[in-house]
Every structure is written in structure tokens, then in C-alpha cells.
């Protein structure tokens, strides 16, 4: 089964309500490989451990697709807590949040106000905030949010561009002109051919093109991938073009290729681990399984044990 077909098939299966119910009931122990814990204290402990290995962190309080703005306020308050805890404990970390957690699908202005509160608090402590990119109904709205925050001198905020989208090359070029800090990823949602490349080869080629554009223009960039093809391309491109190891960072997910993360850090590269925590783990977990068969095989081995 091709990588693109595998991902689309697994996302379809895991979106089934019965599968979701059974997974939530029986799968929490398995999901713990990818989740740092249920609460902030556990996540901060993991952060300190990773910092001890020379690995930076981005903290993510799990959640998306809220039903009312009261929930959005709860996420806002939790993120304010995260920012203050990072500053208090002086760990090397920033934060990542999903705009739909903050009300993007319900009220764009209130969403902006909620996120601005977090970005403002973070700016005071010199902490960076990443607006994660969700599926395509929210792509433009997320980019608009970042631009609006930048216009209000909130330059400690950036976003994510997904290499599998047809529009991504133009988005990268435009946001690069505006000096927006970007994380580049392959993309983990189920998207139709009209908006996204479907073959792994096309996605990889576009990913490389986006990396080259950013690094060639001297723009600090997070390259988020566990794929050695992407990692090696970045290392080789940087070396061939005399680009400093401080000009970019590699990002990987908590629980995946932790040995590789430590190895890259030992080689002098900047490495950041995406550390999620919280009880709303199912959507995040299923996207991790859908990324490649090896992740699913790891879980199945644990089930058989």
C-alpha cells in the first residue's frame, strides 16, 4: 500500500465513531507513547528531561474543535499558565496552539483576542508562540490571524505550512517576505486531490523546495519531519550553501525517533521536540498513526505484548 493510500485509509477508519469509542476506552496506555502526560506538571517534567539532553521543546495542550467560547477561554487560561510556568522554571521551551481551540470556527474576533492574550504574555517573557495549521477550511484564516498579530507588533508568533498543499509554495513566498517564522511539515490531514498532492514523491519534492526557499533567503525555519530524506536534504543543503546550524532547527514529535533527536543535538543541530499533553488525545494520536505504517506497527506490537 502506498504511503498516501495508507494515510487516507487509516484516517477514514479512525474517524469511524465505533473505532473512536473503542480506542478512547482501551487505547490510552498505547497513546501514552506519544503524549507526555495528562497535566502540565507531567509535561514540564518531560521538558526538563529533554532540555538535559540538549533538546528544546514546544508544549502543546491537546484539544481542537470546541463547541462554545467558554471552552476557548479555558484553553486560553491553560496556555497563559503554560507560558508563566516556562518563564518560572526557565526551561528552553515555547508553545504551540491550535486556533480552533481558541474559537476560530465560532467567532474569529474572539479567537484573535484569546490568542493575542497568550502571545502578549509570551512576548513579555520572550517566549515564541506557534499557531498550528489544521485542515484546509482553516488554512487562510490561520494565516490571516498571524498577519493580524504581526501588524500589532506581536512578532513572537509564527505558523505552519504543510508541504502537501498545492497552495503552500505561494504561501511560503508571501510569508517569507513578511519575515514570518515558519514550521514546515508534510501535512497530516485527509485532503482531496483538488487541494493536496496525493503521492509521497510529490509531497517530498515540494517539501524540499520549501526548505530550500527559506534557507536560501536567510529565514529561520523549523523543519519538522522524521523522514531521513528530509533531514539529510536539509543538512546537505545547509552545508553546500554555507548555512549555519543556528539558522534552522529540526523538529520531531515526542515518542518518535527520540534517539535520532538526541543524535542530531549531539551533532550540534538545533532540535526541538513537540511535547503534547492533556486528555483530548484521540485526534492527535490517530494522525500520528496515519503518518506511516511503522507507527501503527509499533502500537500493534504493544497490543500483542
Automatic annotation (TrEMBL):
It catalyses: L-proline + a quinone = (S)-1-pyrroline-5-carboxylate + a quinol + H(+). Residues 44-295 form the Proline dehydrogenase domain. Gene3D superfamilies: 3.20.20.220. FAD binds at residues 133, 162, 186-188, 225-226. SUPFAM superfamilies: FAD-linked oxidoreductase. Its cofactor is FAD. Keywords: FAD, Flavoprotein, Nucleotide-binding, Oxidoreductase, Proline metabolism. It is an enzyme of class 1 (oxidoreductase). Its EC number is 1.5.5.2. Binds 1 FAD per subunit. Substrate binds at residues 98, 287-288. One of its GO terms (molecular function) is nucleotide binding. GO terms for biological process: L-proline catabolic process to L-glutamate. InterPro entries: FAD-linked_oxidoreductase-like (IPR029041), PRODH_bac_arc (IPR008219), Proline_DH_dom (IPR002872), Proline_oxidase (IPR015659). It holds the Pfam family Pro_dh. Pathway: Amino-acid degradation; L-proline degradation into L-glutamate; L-glutamate from L-proline: step 1/2. This is proline dehydrogenase. It comes from Paenibacillus catalpae. The lineage of its organism: Bacteria, Bacillati, Bacillota, Bacilli, Bacillales.
